[in-house]
Design goal:
single chain; alpha+beta; eight-stranded mixed β-sheet; 31 strands; disordered N terminus
């Protein structure tokens, strides 16, 4: 719980980043204060009808460096996006709702099996789980292959756009908008087993003190400042929650913990006021109904801290609301320590960091690490709950500090490289360099949405899913990650086999100098652009761009179909933020007044046509090309203007829209073909460009 000022209310990046007209704004409050959960605002509300189906894709292998086609996004009938990924995602991304039924049954099945505590049942029964050893990524992981540094080309990435990832991160060292967003940062980006970008910038230690009355910071003399390095250790803040969640799923595999079991089965003290109804799953998905935070740092003894937790009552019935809460993971910590007989720091070392070789990831780093650790905040009331001065080499979170530095919600320190190892482990189904920490079916559940009753708050077991507010254009229904209030974030995208780490000391010198997740979104957008989209013919296609709030049109010359058999056909690829961006097909008699033109799409991998009667499509299309067809029946015998329109109305964007091989034809006549130079020269593009990547 890092987001605090002195009034006991909570603050969270998402509050500042969310647009004013956010659909759930009325159901939540986001004041700032020292009592808030680590990097999340308190969120309350009643469940709404599901806006989209749960995620069906497991973290699967992607195109490997050196493969002939790292992005087989082929127009008009190419393969699915990445090597080995088509099977488990096929049918999951055709529009917003396709594949929802598959994901829901998988989620329920997995939940029931884990509730039995039987990983053998789980591993054998989940779709896609059988035969994991035959999976190419699984085989390579079992062979002991490790992450390596390499070029953008080796990673199947576009160098020009990859370099802009670092440029975006560097931009926030300056006024953002008034103060620097962070004193320094480390950004790491990779695909497959190749780390193609790893940069450090700014200062790990810059400010000695801060005066809240004048809002001025006193800097260390230049000779005493410490530059950020690629191996700088960061207070990972709420990324700790991911490790706690992994440890919990490990215990489920071993039959010691059941997903749907009530928490009080393992912690009999955790009862009263409805707490006995809270399940382990609800702790992991923040649907317990518990409040977001409690001031453990005000209790001088361990016994007092425990009494405070036992006294907390759900604010709403468990399972009826999503509210991000540090109390969920603190409770899970106590549960894990009870059933294993080991403290959480020992569990972390024995079960995750030692097997994976993550030697710079731990609780309570030793004093010898201080010079290679990024400083965080000058903590004093009223913006902090404690008066600790400059916090450097010790956990920033007040409650984690009060709990001895070892807590389920915050407290772990680590490096960008170690987080990349964790990302690679999960993308490879729970194994790295021949060391397995989870089974593939368990990893799949980490990336499966259990919160379908709370649209927009998609959540796997510990991992947040499909969150544009910090993932930027990397967000897909399969993307998983988390943020930390100190300025940290991790995003994994199984659909492209890519991962992005951004670590910044954004509370240095004080938490009030930054708000929102602008750097995270900016680098996420750039990195998403670095993953190419390829046409089947290898040439350029029309690209809408990815600018937030931008719009554009792609207009064909006027055509006059002779018969009702005329059709517009093309290949289309789209990824927009649902409800905040869309791809439109429109027709007009005069080129001035436009009306929607209904169309259908068929995935290039096959399947049934999907109808778009409103002439628009949005969301995530599965990262594959679709064949679009639009009848021009109503325009037989009269001129018609046709255009494609893209509009991004919100502050976040997806990967954009591509249109290729546009043709208008009837039975014995080709009215327009983009392949013909004379026809291509008549296309009028506003905001669209030709792009080969």
């Amino acid at each position: 719980m890092e987001a605090r000022t002195g009034d006991g209310t909570a603050h969270r990046d998402r509050a500042a980043e969310a647009p004013p007209d956010h659909a759930r704004a009325a159901a939540r409050s986001h004041p700032a204060g020292p009592g808030g959960p680590a990097d999340h605002p308190p969120q309350a509300g009643t469940p709404a009808p599901a806006a989209r189906g749960p995620h069906t894709g497991a973290p699967g292998p992607g195109a490997r460096p050196g493969s002939a086609a790292p992005e087989a996004d082929t127009a008009g009938g190419g393969q699915h996006d990445d090597e080995g990924s088509g099977q488990h995602r096929d049918g999951a991304g055709a529009g917003v709702g396709a594949g929802a039924r598959v994901g829901l049954s998988r989620r329920r099945l997995g939940g029931r099996l884990l509730a039995l505590g039987g990983v053998l049942l789980l591993h054998g029964a989940l779709p896609g789980a059988a035969g994991a050893a035959g999976n190419p990524a699984e085989r390579r992981a079992l062979q002991g292959l490790r992450l390596r540094y390499g070029s953008a080309r080796q990673a199947g990435l576009l160098e020009r756009h990859l370099e802009q990832v670092a440029e975006e991160a560097r931009r926030f060292l300056g006024p953002s908008p008034l103060h620097p967003y962070y004193a320094g940062a480390v950004v790491l980006a990779g695909r497959g087993r190749t780390i193609a970008l790893h940069r450090a910038m700014g200062c790990a230690v810059r400010y000695e003190d801060y005066d809240g009355r004048t809002d001025l910071a006193r800097e260390f003399p230049a000779a005493q400042r410490i530059a950020m390095a690629e191996d700088t250790v960061f207070d990972l803040a709420s990324l700790t929650k991911l490790f706690t969640s992994l440890l919990a799923v490990q215990q489920m595999e071993r039959g010691r913990l059941e997903l749907e079991a009530p928490v009080d089965r393992y912690l009999p003290e955790f009862t009263g006021g409805g707490k006995e109804l809270i399940t382990v799953r609800q702790l992991l998905t923040h649907t317990s109904g518990l409040r977001s935070w409690a001031p453990f740092y005000k209790e001088p003894t361990r016994a007092g801290q425990l009494r405070l937790l036992w006294s907390v009552r759900p604010q709403e019935p468990p399972g009826t609301v999503y509210r991000y809460s540090d109390l969920n993971l603190i409770t899970l910590q106590l549960l894990l320590e009870r059933i294993t007989g080991h403290t959480l720091d020992l569990l972390l070392q024995d079960e995750i960091t030692a097997p994976l070789g993550m030697h710079r990831t731990r609780y309570n780093p030793p004093l010898s690490w201080r010079r290679v650790t990024a400083a965080t905040e000058v903590q004093r009331p009223p913006w902090s709950g404690l008066d600790r001065g400059l916090v450097w080499g010790r956990v920033h979170d007040e409650n984690a500090h009060a709990l001895g530095g070892v807590a389920g919600h915050a407290g772990i320190f680590g490096t960008a490289w170690d987080l990349a190892v964790l990302a690679r482990t999960l993308l490879d189904g729970g194994i790295y360099a021949g060391k397995r920490i989870l089974r593939p079916a368990s990893v799949e559940l980490l990336f499966t949405d259990f919160n379908t009753a709370f649209p927009g708050d998609d959540h796997g077991l510990g991992f947040e899913l499909y969150q544009h507010w910090y993932m930027g254009a990397m967000a897909t229904p399969h993307s998983a990650g988390h943020t930390g209030f100190t300025g940290t974030s991790l995003v994994l995208d199984p659909s492209t086999d890519s991962f992005l780490v951004l670590l910044g000391n954004s509370v240095h010198p004080v938490r009030t100098w930054r708000a929102g997740s602008a750097p995270r979104v900016a680098v996420g957008n750039r990195f998403a652009r670095a993953v190419p989209v390829r046409t089947r013919h290898g040439g350029a296609a029309w690209f809408s761009g990815m600018e937030p709030g931008a719009s554009g049109t792609l207009t064909l010359p006027p055509l006059t179909p002779a018969t009702a058999e005329a059709r517009l056909r093309c290949a289309v690829w789209w990824d927009t933020v649902p409800g905040e961006g869309a791809f439109h097909l429109e027709a007009s008699a005069d080129g001035t007044v436009w009306e929607p033109l209904p169309f259908s799409t068929v995935r290039s991998t096959g399947g049934s046509p999907e109808q778009w009667p409103q002439g628009r499509a949005d969301g995530w299309s599965g990262r594959i090309w679709h064949r679009l067809e639009a009848p021009l029946t109503a325009w037989a015998g009269r001129p018609v203007h046709l255009r494609f329109r893209h509009a991004a109305t919100g502050r976040y964007v997806g990967r954009g829209v591509y249109v290729d091989v546009v043709r208008v034809a009837e039975r014995a006549r080709l009215l327009f073909s983009e392949d013909r130079p004379a026809d291509a020269s008549t296309v009028r593009a506003v905001g669209w460009t030709r792009s080969a990547d």
